[in-house]
Amino acid sequence: MHVHDVRRIGAASVLVLLVAWAPLAFAQAEQYSNWGSVQELEAGWGQDTMSVRHSAPMVNPGGCSITNAGYATNPADTGHSLFHTLLLSAFLNRKEVSILVSGCVYGKPRIIAVKIH
Fold first, then answer.
1. Tens of pLDDT along 28-63?
2. Residue 111 has pLDDT above 80, yes or no
3. Is 29 helix (H, G, I), strand (E, B) or coil?
C-alpha cells in the first residue's frame, strides 16, 4: 500500500465520520417535546418569564443543569408573551401542547416555540 492510498483511506474515513456525526450535532440544537398537557405554570422571579411543567417526558437537547423542573421562557425572546398566552390557554382549556426547546435559560431548557391542538 502506498502513502497516497493511506492518506485517501484516512481522508475518506474522516469524511464518513463527519457525515455520520453532523445530523446528531444539528439534532441537538433544538427539539420538540412529545404532545402532553401543561401540568403547572409558574411566573415571576422578578422578570417577565414563565416556568412550565409538562406531562410528556422532558427533552433537554442543550444539556441544561436543571432536569426535573420543566422548561422556561426567556424574557429576552420576542415571542415569550405569545408563548405564555398559548401555554395558559392550553392549561385552562385542557389542550395538549408540544414545546420546542433550544439552549438553556435559568438552568432549564429554553422554550422557543409552542404548538397547541
1. 589 999 999 999 999 987 899 999 999 999 999 999
2. yes
3. coil
Sign for the CA dihedral angle at 107, 110, 115, 116 comes to: positive
| Residue 61 and residue 27 in contact, taking contact as beta carbons nearer than 8 Å | yes
Place of cell 497516497: 4
Bridge partners, residue 108, by sequence: 105
Question: Three cell numbers at 33?
Answer: 417535546
The CB density around residue 81, as the number of other CB atoms within 10 Å, is 13
Query: pTM value?
Result: 0.75
DSSP state of 68: S
**Candidate CATH numbers 3.40.30.10, 3.40.50.1220, 2.40.50.340, 2.40.128.110; the one for domain 31-116:** 2.40.50.340
Q: Can you tell me the distance from the alpha carbon of 84 to that of 6, in angstroms, rounded to the nearest whole number?
A: 57
Are 87 and 52 in contact by the 8 Å Cβ rule? The answer is: yes
